[in-house]
Amino acid sequence: MGEKFTWGTHSIDGEMIHLAGWDTHNDIDSAQNYCTKIAKAHYENFLITNYFTPKHIRQHIENIYAFCRYADDLGDDAPFDSDGRIALLETWQSDLEEAARDGWNGKPRHPILLAVAHTSKKFNIPLKPYVNLIQAFKLDQTKTTYSNFDELREYCILSADPVGHLFLYVYGHDDENLRRISDYTCTALQLANHWQDVARDLDQNRSYFPIETMEMFDYSPQDYQNRVYDERWCSMMKYEVDRAQKWFDDGKQLWDLVDPHLAVDLRMFTFGGEAILNSIRKQKYNTWNKRPKVSKFNQLRLFFGARRDWKKVQKKQK
Q1: Which of 2, 26, 150, 262 sits in a 20 to 30 Å window from 296, CA-based?
Q2: Is 8 among the domain residues?
Q3: Angle of helix 128-142 versus helix 149-159 axis, rounded to 10
Q4: What percent of the chain has pLDDT over 70?
Q5: Average per-residue pLDDT for the chain
């Protein structure tokens, strides 16, 4: 993986807003090359595209990834206050809506959206999953706590589930039942990342941990702010880790219902998320002092397991 991608400079001058990257890479080939560079420059727990992603799909997954990464960075890293970041995200959404105009035949200013329009037109992807993702990034600017799991689940519907829907579209699946099942895996991945990043999120004055769960184990919001690690913390973190595991388990039914190549990706995503949960368990749920990571050995183990599955798919298709 390369260094983190440098977007350039966003600017806000009153009502005048400029997004980094606007009016560059104006043809589709250049725009898609730009998306590929973004995909290769960002670290993830597991690659959004990988050795097993079919070549005719890989570029489109990279286009979608670039969209998600750019929007996420607008919400998390742009050097503005919450109001400024919301303004950037609203401008990004406006450019997205221009891209989607007349059946994805609009004229967006940003190269990522030019590439996204190309992908969305090819696979008949609706605007909604992209807008939902932006709504989640906007929500992060104003909502810092979650009362209960149902409320957190509503956030995941915006922040995580649309990614699974986009994958299904690109692999040729436009089916509401498949989207419903994929939501289990996507929400589970989001939960695993939340429990992996409790310290990092608190550094940004956010907490995704349901207050209802804290109350169950007599762990106060003040304890949370003070990052208290004790038996109460271990018990409530185990509770949420086990809940995420159940969501992963429920999502596995999708594997036998989709394109076999997508099933290989789904296995990688699931096993990668489960590896995060296992890392949390191994360090006795102490996610305050050390961010749980998937070891290089486990990453290789996941890779070779997926490689075995991929070979089986290739043999069946010969």
Answers
A1: 262
A2: no
A3: 130
A4: 87
A5: 90
Encoding tokens for residue 220? Answer: 């106060």
- From residue 1, give the alpha-carbon distance in Å to each of 4, 43, 46, 314: 9, 7, 11, 27
Cα distances (Å, whole numbers) of residue 4 to 28, 73, 176, 199: 23, 11, 35, 21
3 state DSSP class of 179: helix
Q: 162 and 41 in one domain?
A: no
Per-position b or e across 109-136, b if 16+ CB within 10 A of its CB = bbbbbbbbbbbbeebebeeebbebbbbb
Q: Do 193 and 287 belong to one domain?
A: yes
Task: Evaluate whether 112 touches 66 at the Cβ level (below 8 Å).
Answer: yes
Find the length of the chain: 318
**Tokens 């989207």 — which residue?**
179
Tens of pLDDT, residues 42-92:
545 444 445 667 888 999 999 999 999 999 999 988 999 999 999 999 999
Is pLDDT of 36 > 80? yes
Residues 64 and 91 in one domain: yes
Q: Which domain holds residue 171?
A: 143-318
- Angle in degrees, 0-180, between the axes of helices 82-99 and 111-123, rounded to the nearest 10: 50
Please answer whether residues 213 and 198 qualify as being in contact, where contact means their C-beta atoms are separated by less than 8 angstroms. Answer: no
Helices (H), the chain: 28-41, 55-76, 82-99, 101-104, 111-123, 128-142, 149-159, 161-170, 176-196, 198-203, 211-216, 221-225, 231-251, 260-282, 296-317
Lowest mean pLDDT across 23-27, 82-86, 303-307: 303-307
Number of domains in the chain: 2
Residue with tokens 């804290």: 214
Give yes or no for a contact between 203 and 141, defined as CB atoms under 8 angstroms apart.
no
User: Is residue 16 within a helix (H) or strand (E), and if so which, with residue range?
Assistant: strand 16-18
